[in-house]
Amino acid sequence: MRNKIITLALSGVALFIMSGCSAKGPQFNGFNEPTKGNSNVYIYRTSSLGAGVTPNIHDTNLEDSTDKIVGNVKPNGYIMTTITPGMHKFWAKTEVTNEVNLNIDPNKIYCIKNYISMGFLVGHPQFEIVDMNKCKDEIKETKLSLQK
């Protein structure tokens, strides 16, 4: 009986901690049209696996080598960035660095799914370029990941 109470208490604490890690912003309500000549990239995360791991996601413009932090995506959250056309590398680092390259055409919307896989000490960030049909189906359940 005592083991059941301890297990139940620890499960409640874990649930409480993990619920604090989810995205807290407004529910996704549609894609914004990009400003003329630019494109919008939506990066979203549908899983709570690795809930405490929210590394900064970078956008490196491979045309001019500029790098900017786009933000971090919390579980069940999304972020959006407006970028210039050309080849871009989106990447994040924990104990390893993972990346995805995307050739951006002007006036388009792109989607990248972000998730966390198992790591040795901490989860590894992963990226997957997804088509608009899959993105529309999955991103509608997410909320804006408010940045610090």
What's the quick description here?
It is built from two helices and nine strands, in the order H-E-E-E-E-E-E-E-E-H-E.
Task: Describe what you observe in this structure.
The structure is a single chain. The protein is α+β, with helices and mostly antiparallel strands and 148 residues long. It has a single domain (23-144), classed as Immunoglobulin-like (Sandwich). Helices cover 18% and strands 39% of the residues. The chain contains 2 helices and 9 strands; from the N terminus they run αββββββββαβ. It has helices spanning 2-19, 132-139, and strands at 39-45, 57-61, 67-71, 77-83, 86-93, 97-104, 109-117, 124-130, 143-144. The strands form 2 sheets. The protein has a 5-stranded mixed sheet. A 4-stranded antiparallel sheet has the order 3-2-5-6, with no helix packed on it. The longest helix has 18 residues, at 2-19. Residues 5-20 have low confidence and may be disordered. Keywords: Signal. This is DUF2846 domain-containing protein.
- The percentage helix is 10-25%
- Known CATH architecture: Sandwich
For the secondary structure, the number of strands is 9
What order do the helices and strands follow?
Answer: HEEEEEEEEHE
Shape: globular
Rg calculated over all Cα atoms: 17 Å
CATH topology value: Immunoglobulin-like
CATH superfamily heading:
Domain of unknown function DUF5300
- Number of structural units classed as domains: 1
Please state the average pLDDT score: 84
CATH class value: Mainly Beta
Tell me the β content: 35-45%
- The computed structural class is alpha+beta
Strand order of the largest sheet: 8-7-1-4-9
In DSSP terms (H or I, runs of 4 or more residues), the helix count works out at 2
Largest sheet: 5 strands, mixed
Which regions contain 5 or more consecutive residues with pLDDT less than 50?
5-20
What distance separates the N and C termini? Answer: 43 Å
Protein name: DUF2846 domain-containing protein
Organism: Arcobacter nitrofigilis (strain ATCC 33309 / DSM 7299 / CCUG 15893 / LMG 7604 / NCTC 12251 / CI)
Keywords: Signal
Signal peptide: 1-23
